[in-house]
Amino acid sequence: MKVIIIGNGVAGTFSAQNIRALDKEAIIEIYSLENYPYYTRIKLPELISKQATTEDLIVFNEDWYKNKNIKVYLGKKINRINIKHEHIFIEGENEPVSYDKLIFATGSMPNIPSIKNVVEMKGKGVFTLRNMDNGLEIQKYIEKKDVKKGIIIGGGLLGLELAKQIKNCDIETTVVEFFPRLLPRQLDLDCGNMLKDVIEDMGIKVVLSAATEEILGDDKVKGIKLKDDREFEADIVLIQAGIRSTIDLAKQSNLETNRGIIVNQFLETSKKDIYAVGDCIEYKGQTWGIIPACIEQSKIIASSVLGKKHIEYAGTIPKNTLKIVGIDLTSVGIFDSEDTEQVGAGWEIMKAIDKKRNCYKKIVLKDKILKGAILFGYKKAFSYVNKNIESEVNEQEIRKILELFIWECSNCGKEYDEAKMDVLFNYLPEDWKCPECKGPKEGFKKRINFF
User: Fold this and answer.
1) Looking at residue 148, which CATH number applies to its domain?
2) With helix as H, strand as E and coil as C, how does the chain read?
3) I need a labelling partner for 283 at 20 to 30 A (CA). Which of 226, 267, 329, 405 fits?
4) Residue range of the domain that includes 164
5) Which pTM does this prediction carry?
């Protein structure tokens, strides 16, 4: 059997690896538009500041492919597929390549918002960062043009990581975010505000609730103009406003698509013997665009391609970590009551804000099932949350690991539950009184049955 995979990102490469683990005889070929073997996109921002080289980013070199007996063809663009005869056609080559099973692992591309002059200014100071060549191009532009001021449009994970590396290039850096908080897909408003303070303490300016209307400049970028008429100067503008699935080839091949390539629980597309995996797929109306989803899907697709349909895809719980030195931040699953359809119907939120230590802890439960969490500046609970997400948890255990106490008035029994209050008990003013009996603060004791 011959399996062809289009794309050698994390989804395509790990699919090949998992197929090989299950079948030593299958012919596996990977075709990639890029000129590099599999590399990690996580470190792409470090390429710009030269904290990492192209060699540092490469995960699997040529020997890895040889040892796995996987053929990889780099710099190859697939421009047509003949589904009836099971052939792919490569740009610039006359002979088609046959397959028995075909996997789309075409990934995603940067989303470019509708901004005046953005297309005209691409390459003249406007860039996106999605692959190795993008990173090298940005790096060279900064050096050649002696860039002094930079703007990042988008305050998501990659936008913030990119902002830190631009700042590391001694460039005055500003992050412009459309939503009223940073990381709008990973954080609630409270934690978003705390993160903003930390980012600004690093010397990076943050502008929220800001819709960019126009890129200013002619032969080169001069700045941006917001819809409220504010203007910001810049020598370079980096757009990191999310991603969208790469589905052009799939649409051209008459596969069923929407925002992504539509797949079933076995990651099969609408055409026989054609599958899809990673950022390019849509399952039950949802797309993911995160590495954990790619890795999880790659295991399922390997079984499906080989006819062993005993593993079904059920979606992937979002897990995101901000990779900036000095910041410990992880968001898992459902993180805000806005994400729940029936707030109060079995839902419970436990949280603590410790501004003195830049620490934020939040747990979301549904009928004692751990549904999500935000952990900022508090690494102790990372492994616990990852291990127990979507599992039933014990409240006593949660309180212990998060250090969320219940204090009880020794006079009247009134409780002060830190998991439900805005201020930790120890940070209350010394003259604070019991709201029930007006007893002194020192009259409260920790509830020992939780520890």
Assistant:
1) 3.50.50.60
2) CEEEEECCCHHHHHHHHHHHHHCCCCEEEEECCCCCCCECHHHHHHHHCCCCCHHHHECCCHHHHHHCCEEEECCCCEEEEECCCCEEEECCCCCCEECCEEEECCCEEECCCCCECCCCCECCCEECCCCHHHHHHHHHHHHHCCCCEEEEECCCHHHHHHHHHHHHCCCEEEEECCCCCCCCCCCCHHHHHHHHHHHHHCCCEEECCCCEEEEEECCCEEEEEECCCCEEECCEEEECCCEEECCHHHHHCCCCECCCEECCCCCECCCCCEEECHHHEEECCECCCCHHHHHHHHHHHHHHHCCCCCCCCCCCCCEEECCCCCCCEEEEECCCHHHCCCCCCCEEEEEEEEHHHCEEEEEEEECCEEEEEEEECCHHHHHHHHHHCCCECCHHHHHHHHCCCEEEECCCCCEEECCCCCCCHHHCCCCCECCCCCCEHHHEEECHHHC
3) 329
4) 126-241
5) 0.90
